Amino acid sequence: MVQELNATTFQSDVLKSKLPVIVDFWAEWCGPCKMMAPVFEEVSKEYSGKLNFAKLNTEQFGEIAAESGVTGIPCLIIFHKGEEADRIVGFMPKPMLKQKIDEILRKL
Fold first, then answer.
1. Suppose 88 and one of 27, 30, 36, 76 were both cysteines; which one would form an S-S bond, judging by CB atoms 3.0 to 4.6 Å apart?
2. Residue 59: which residues within 8 A CB-CB, separation 6 or more?
3. What's the pTM value of the predicted model, to 2 decimals?
4. Secondary structure letter of residue 92 according to DSSP
5. What is the pLDDT of residues 33-69, one digit of tens each?
6. Sheet containing 75-80, strands listed edge to edge, beginning at the edge strand earlier in sequence
């Protein structure tokens, strides 16, 4: 399940999360973001209990995107213990995304 974040929940559900969290920074007008959404949703079902999945609209919450150093979208940032562990920028098909997530999780 992918959770929609806002300014309040970003702090509690991402930065203070016990599990690592992957956040999809996206916008309505972004074509690659629209392609990434169903892939992100599908992959989220396979990491239950290992990794939380969340989305943040960069148009509505630009200050959080800026604080996170997001300059291009879609941008997936994995946060672990309140810090950025890694990031994935741009669209990626499901097998590549899973491989990248697995590599990042092994390092945590």
1. 76
2. 27, 28, 29
3. 0.97
4. -
5. 999 999 999 999 999 999 999 999 999 999 999 999 9
6. 2-4, 52-57, 21-26, 75-80, 83-89
For 104, the token pair is: 């990042």
Q: Which class is domain 2-107?
A: alpha beta
Among candidates 41, 24, 2, which has minimal Cα distance to 89?
Answer: 24
Task: Specify the residue for token string 């919450």.
Answer: 61
DSSP assigned state of 5: P
Task: Report which residue type is found at 3.
Answer: Q
Q: How far apart are CA 85 and CA 93, in angstroms?
A: 21
Distance CA 68, CA 65 (A): 5
Catalytic annotation, residues: 30, 33
Question: Which two structure tokens, joined as six digits, stand for 106?
Answer: 């092994």
